[in-house]
Amino acid sequence: MAWSIAEVAKEAGVTSRTLRHYDAIGLLPPAWTADNGRRFYEQEQLLRLQRILLLRDLGLGLDAVAEVLDRQGRDSTVDVLERHRDWLVRERGRLDRLIRTVESTIENVQEGREMSPRKVFEGFETNPYEAEARERWGDAAIDAADERMQGWSADDAEKARTGYDRVHRSLAPLKAAGVPVTDERVQETVRFHYEVTCLFWTPNRAAYRGLAQLYVDDERFRANIGGGDDALVEYLRDAMFVYADRRLGE
């Protein structure tokens, strides 16, 4: 069976314009196109659209969606859907905890009782990028990072909380002064950046270079790091490239 673009748009809750855009960027070509230009979709395209909408619901941009789908293309449809189902089950559990937290808060406020911080914030998402990270890099990598965090000392936790901002603030005047990224002062700052990163995971040369490029490519990281100064983000990327090539192994 085949469904027209209008039928698919209606059932999926998107616009025909959105589907045409997905086609234009190669994300979701139709199964076939009629002589009059009308697009038609079959089962394979419907399943792909479902995956696109699930990934978009996680907050991924279209470039990231394309990357994930390309990687998932090597897996079976059932494997991919099972991973999505597992994420949805986790998300349902988190929302259930949030509901219980809000209900408990209402009850305690009405009765004038105090709540501990743990009870006040139970169920709140601690990492807004976790869902996306699990899709892009897998559960094993994220679970390993979580396990590392459980073993942090107080100093480690403080370094993780403030370290990246310290790097950005240190690099800004160096960039403004025209200091090359190969300069030892810049590289010492990047060494500290690598130390902070290793609190979560230990990237090799290729992974650290990939992280550096992600900072530039992803508008969220770009805004957080540069605060509107894209040149600072590119400066950090170039400095990380130098550090990776000089200091890190394959």
| Helix percentage range | over 70%
Oligomeric form of this entry?
single chain
Low-pLDDT residue intervals, each spanning 5 or more residues: none
Strand order of the largest sheet: 1-3-2
Question: Mind summarizing the main beta sheet?
Answer: 3 strands, antiparallel
- Secondary structure class reads mainly alpha
Order of helices and strands: EHHEEHHHHHHHHHHH
Radius of gyration: 23 Å
Strand content: under 5%
Helix count equals 13
Q: How far is the N terminus from the C terminus?
A: 49 Å
- Mean residue pLDDT: 83
Basic shape:
globular
Q: How many β-strand runs? A: 3
Question: Which descriptors apply to this entry?
Answer:
250 residues; mainly alpha; three-stranded antiparallel β-sheet; 13 helices; 3% strand; globular
What does this 3D model show about the protein?
The chain is mainly alpha-helical and 250 residues long. It contains 13 helices and three strands; from the N terminus they run E-H-H-E-E-H-H-H-H-H-H-H-H-H-H-H. The protein has helices at 5-12, 16-24, 43-57, 62-72, 77-111, 117-120, 130-137, 139-150, 154-176, 184-197, 205-217, 219-226, 230-247, and strands at 3-4, 32-33, 39-41. The chain has a three-stranded antiparallel sheet. Strand 2 and strand 3 (39-41) form a beta hairpin. The longest helix has 35 residues, at 77-111. The protein is globular, with a radius of gyration of 23 Å. The termini are far apart. The mean pLDDT is 83.
